[in-house]
């Protein structure tokens, strides 16, 4: 799936085209991978712009995406046909890549798709570092998580509760609220599409919020800033409400609450914590094995479905982790 033009606002199918290329002979150090599942991440949207924090996709090139797959053929040391790998596979059915940029995964401990979800870089690891290193969640903290029914949000709230916090989610719609409370075990969840978030939050957290884990940005950030406690931590994980219009990002107007309440706001990218990746992966895998982390998967099938999958991420049409299975049709 290649980028044919840069989107202005929400991308639609006219920005992309399917391009069929023959698989050519592998060079030394390269591997051929059958792509199993791709992670549909918000950074894919910003990488379609001509300037982006994440490397922009050149016009005519394969759209960037992280994924898991299985090696079909290898000329790279340490990687054999049949091995499961994680890496920047791109929106395609077969990937030919240098073996050195791939990570072999341990399928005895977790299924392939868990390496995109509960223990994946852009979901589990992001939540782990955001809650522990940036939010410094401590026992008894009230932790509010926006985008709570999505991949990062689902895991951030569960990890906050493992750390002894009380998680309150914010998500759009009754089905998502049921999932967040019923399946994930958050203490509560506010339906921002049908409820007054400020009023509900005052009921649920009358003493204020210790940690706000923000995935959404925009106006919601102000609603939360108004209700933080002394010494609160506001974690800027992302701002999905702003990614379709990065030239005119709307920031918070109530930032002086940080000064009034001796609080701090700190952003991060998961890659800032690279030295701790191995530790995080081990801990997340253990929690998964112990049944402490749940995450639903929503899978779209067929590489041609990529534009639909990308829109689904922004329209909130999925619960849990959004994946694209490029090479198979729906079961
Ligand atoms: N800092 C890092 O290194 C890092 C790494 C990975 C991801 N992230 C960030 O983490 C956040 C979540 O990513 P994800 O992959 O887990 O996506 P996700 O939460 O699975 O999906 C995005 C969700 O955002 C909500 N949303 C979309 N537009 C919205 C709007 N205008 N207002 C409020 N909610 C909106 C939708 O849920 P509703 O139906 O509830 O609206 C949607 O389901 C993103 O901001 C992403 O950029 C950061």
Write structural notes for this entry.
The chain has 331 residues and is α/β, with parallel strands linked by helices. Helices cover 25% and strands 23% of the residues. It has 9 helices and 15 strands. Strands 3, 4, 5, 6, 7, 14 and 15 form a 7-stranded mixed β-sheet that branches. Strands 10-9-8-11-12-13 form a 6-stranded parallel β-sheet, with helices on both faces. Helix 2 (121-134) packs across helix 3 (151-162). The relative contact order is 0.15. The structure holds NADP nicotinamide-adenine-dinucleotide phosphate (NAP).
Q: How much is the radius of gyration in Å?
A: 20 Å
Bound molecules: NADP nicotinamide-adenine-dinucleotide phosphate
Helix content bin: 25-40%
Largest sheet: 7 strands, mixed
Tell the overall outline: globular
Low-confidence regions? none
Q: What's the N-to-C terminus distance?
A: 22 Å
- The helix/strand series, from N terminus to C terminus, equals EEEHEEEEHEHEHEHEHEHEHEHE
Instruction: Please report which band the strand proportion falls in: under 5%, 5-15%, 15-25%, 25-35%, 35-45% or over 45%.
Output: 15-25%
Summarize model confidence as the mean pLDDT. 97
Total DSSP E strands: 15
Q: What's the architecture of the largest domain, going by CATH?
A: 3-Layer(aba) Sandwich
- Supply the number of structural domains: 2
CATH class of the largest domain: Alpha Beta
State the secondary-structure class: alpha/beta
Count helical runs: 9
CATH homologous superfamily descriptor of the largest domain: NAD(P)-binding Rossmann-like Domain
CATH topology of the largest domain: Rossmann fold
């Amino acid at each position: 799936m290649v980028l044919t033009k840069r989107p202005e606002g929400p991308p639609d199918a006219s920005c992309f085209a399917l391009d069929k290329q023959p698989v050519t002979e592998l060079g030394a150090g390269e591997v051929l991978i059958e792509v199993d599942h791709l992670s549909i991440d918000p950074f894919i949207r910003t990488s379609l712009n001509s300037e982006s924090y994440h490397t922009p996709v050149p016009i005519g090139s394969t759209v960037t995406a992280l994924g898991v797959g299985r090696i079909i053929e290898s000329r790279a040391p340490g990687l054999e046909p049949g091995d499961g790998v994680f890496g920047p596979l791109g929106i395609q059915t077969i990937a030919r890549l240098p073996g050195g940029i791939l990570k072999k995964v341990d399928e005895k401990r977790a299924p392939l798709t868990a390496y995109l979800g509960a223990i994946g870089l852009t979901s589990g690891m992001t939540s782990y570092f955001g809650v522990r290193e940036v939010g410094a969640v401590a026992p008894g903290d009230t932790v509010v998580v926006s985008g709570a029914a999505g991949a990062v949000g689902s895991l951030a709230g569960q990890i906050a509760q493992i750390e002894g916090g009380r998680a309150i989610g914010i998500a759009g719609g009754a089905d998502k609220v049921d999932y967040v409370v019923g399946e994930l075990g958050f203490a509560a969840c506010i339906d921002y599409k049908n409820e007054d978030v400020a009023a509900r939050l005052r009921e649920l957290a009358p003493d204020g919020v210790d940690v706000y884990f923000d995935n959404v940005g925009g106006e919601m950030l102000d609603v939360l800033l108004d209700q933080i406690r002394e010494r609160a931590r506001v974690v800027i994980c992302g701002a999905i409400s702003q990614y379709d219009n990065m030239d005119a990002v709307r920031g918070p107007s109530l930032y002086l609450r940080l000064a009034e309440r001796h609080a701090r706001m700190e952003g991060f990218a998961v890659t800032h914590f690279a030295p701790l990746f191995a530790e995080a992966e081990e801990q997340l895998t253990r929690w998964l094995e112990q049944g402490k982390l749940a995450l639903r998967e929503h899978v779209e099938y067929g590489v041609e479905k990529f534009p639909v999958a990308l829109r689904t991420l922004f329209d909130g049409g999925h619960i849990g982790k959004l994946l694209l299975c490029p090479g198979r049709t729906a079961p």
